[in-house]
Amino acid sequence: MAERVVVEIRDGVADVRLNRPEKLNALDGPMYRALVDTCEEIRKQPAVRVVVLSGEGRGFCAGLDFAAFQTMAGDRAASSAMAENVASKEGANIGQRAVAGWSELAVPVIAAIHGPCLGGGLQLALGADIRLVAPDASLSAMEVRWGLVPDMGGSLALARLVRPDVAKELVWTGRTVSGAEAVHLGLATRQEADPLAASLELAARIAARSPDAVRAGKRLLTDAVGRTPDEQMALERQESSALVGTANQIEAVTASFEKRPPLFRDPA
């Protein structure tokens, strides 16, 4: 069995690719586990400053492997066993862990979306901080077609990204939207003819900035809407104070004045 996820780390950027192109990178047990394990490995590597998440072949991810639905339709006992097998001791299923791990990383995660990005694939993309999408990509919260609802954290991500009525329409109908419409709705950050190349270029730009400031920015902006204004202002003061006078902050200023590329230290 080929590796479900392949990773190449270069110049602070982890290029992470779903690697099941013959199945449009459909999610199965080994893919879920590979995503969780890959995220944990990246978490241990302080030299990683940015992650780019993409899919090999003709699409980002077509969602759950259809063979799993055939099992569910033909054998309720097998369906129950599958549901039990993906549950973790913490209560989150492995699909939720495969998505949440990326949003919980200390570093930015950019999803490069082309072709189909459906069901669980869309939920995985929504776990990224930024989504660059091909105009002709196809995105859908398609779980309702199988009598289900998003169960990998997609309901939370949708509620944060789009208006409540838009989220409900997408979940209730399972309709497919193009990359262009996804940007209009707020599901994606911007369109790119070549999302992977654009994502790697953006990642390189971010990786060239102070990793301390970038990580602080992610902490500051993630879940900002869930804080009170006083809480957000307090966090701003805390993060800013922690950065002032550090080696990387001084290097950012010095390199700017000297008109040279900065040489930042990775966090310990």
Describe the protein.
One of its GO terms (molecular function) is isomerase activity. Keywords: Fatty acid metabolism, Isomerase, Lipid metabolism. Pathway: Lipid metabolism; fatty acid beta-oxidation. This protein has 268 residues and is of the alpha/beta class. The protein has 2 domains: 5-206, 2-enoyl-CoA Hydratase, Chain A, domain 1, CATH 3.90.226; 210-258, Orthogonal Bundle (Lyase 2-enoyl-coa Hydratase, Chain  A, domain 2). The protein has 12 helices and 9 strands. The protein has helices at residues 29-43, 66-74, 76-85, 94-104, 120-126, 154-161, 164-173, 179-185, 195-207, 211-221, 229-243, 247-258; strands spanning 5-10, 13-18, 50-55, 109-113, 116-118, 130-133, 138-140, 177-178, 190-191. The longest helix is centred in the N-terminal third of the chain and has 15 residues, at 29-43. The chain is globular. The chain starts with a strand and ends in a 10-residue tail after the last helix. Mean pLDDT is 92; it is low at 77-82 and 84-89.
In terms of topology, how is this protein built?
Blueprint: E1 5-10, E2 13-18, H1 29-43, E3 50-55, H2 66-74, H3 76-85, H4 94-104, E4 109-113, E5 116-118, H5 120-126, E6 130-133, E7 138-140, H6 154-161, H7 164-173, E8 177-178, H8 179-185, E9 190-191, H9 195-207, H10 211-221, H11 229-243, H12 247-258
Parallel strand pairs: 2-3, 3-4, 4-6, 5-7, 6-9
Antiparallel strand pairs: 1-2, 7-8
InterPro entries: ClpP/crotonase-like_dom_sf, Ech1-like, Enoyl-CoA_hyd/isom_CS, Enoyl-CoA_hydra/iso, Enoyl-CoA_hydra_C
Organism: Parafrankia irregularis
Pfam family, one: ECH_1
